[in-house]
């Protein structure tokens, strides 16, 4: 099977799963009258999976046939090791720094590590992406779901 078509398998499964999840969420019954019922989160997740799957399918179809450099096995082990290290550091810093700062730092480090050898303008993009994602997650959980996340030094 060609590499291009191989990259379509998982997103296609994700697309089918998202449609099935969205349709099945309509069969959930709510016992109380509430603005947000038990079917709300599955629908949001289904829409997210659907969007990501469409993006991956589009990316696979539009990708030019290039020979990509494969990281050596040794280099890959270091990336995996640093990912694990960053995760432990994130967990340790979550309470003292708070969700926003710790998550922004973790995302920045993880994106930088995953990208390879970025240029200075890429670092600015990574910072912006990290801040936007952190604040979006924070807003959804604190403002939308009324859940408390660690505030840390921002108090």
Summarize the topology.
Layout: H1 3-6, H2 9-24, H3 40-62, H4 73-97, H5 99-115, H6 120-144
Helix pairs in contact: 2-3, 4-5, 5-6
Any overview of this molecule?
It is a single chain. The longest helix is centred in the middle third of the chain and has 25 residues, at 73-97. The protein has helices at residues 3-6, 9-24, 40-62, 73-97, 99-115, 120-144. The chain is mostly helical. The protein is 71% helix and 0% strand. Helix 4 runs antiparallel to helix 5 (99-115) and helix 5 (99-115) runs antiparallel to helix 6. Residues 67-71 have low confidence and may be disordered. The N and C termini lie far apart (54 Å). It is built from 6 helices and no strands. The protein folds into 2 domains: 3-62; 73-154, no CATH class. The chain is flat and about 50 Å long.
């Amino acid at each position: 099977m060609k590499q291009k078509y191989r990259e379509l398998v998982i997103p296609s499964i994700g697309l089918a799963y998202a449609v099935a999840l969205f349709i099945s969420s309509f069969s959930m019954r709510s016992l109380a009258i509430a603005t947000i019922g038990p079917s709300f989160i599955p629908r949001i997740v289904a829409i997210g999976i659907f969007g990501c799957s469409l993006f991956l399918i589009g990316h696979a179809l539009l990708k030019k046939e290039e020979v990509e450099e494969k990281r050596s096995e040794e280099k890959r082990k270091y990336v995996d090791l640093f990912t694990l290290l960053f995760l432990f550091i994130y967990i340790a810093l979550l309470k003292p720094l708070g969700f926003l700062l710790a998550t922004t730092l973790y995302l920045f480090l993880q994106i930088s590590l995953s990208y390879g050898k970025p240029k200075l303008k890429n670092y600015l993009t990574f910072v912006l992406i990290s801040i936007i994602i952190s604040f979006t997650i924070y807003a959804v959980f604190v403002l939308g779901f009324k859940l408390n996340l660690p505030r840390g030094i921002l108090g």
